[in-house]
Amino acid sequence: MKMEQADALLEEWYDWTRQWRPRLGMPSVAPYCREWRTGDDYDDEDRLESAFNRATMEAVDCCVNSLPPDVSRAIGLEMRRRRGMAREWSRGCPGISYRKAVMALLPRLSERCLL
Question: From which domain of life does this come (predicted)?
C-alpha cells in the first residue's frame, strides 16, 4: 500500500519538477501592472491548493535529494522511462533497482508525514 502511494507521489513530483522553466527575455507584464493582484474573493481555494501542492512537492524533492546519488538516479531514470523520455538499453541500468530506491525513500517520506 505504501509502495503504491510513494510511487504515485513520485510521479507527481517528477511532473512538478519538469514544470519549472527559467524566465528568459522580456517580461510578459507591463511595468505598471507587475504588483497588481487579483481580489482574494475568488482564488482563495486555488491559491491554497497550489501552496499545499508546492509545499508537498518541495518536501518530496528534499527527501529525494537527501538520498545517495545512485538511489536518486534510479528514481529519476524510472520516472523518465515511464514518461517515454529515456532509452532502454538491452543490458539495463547497472546499480540499484527502482524498487530498492523507493524502499530507501519510504522512511524519509514517512518522517515528513507524506504517506
Answer: Bacteria
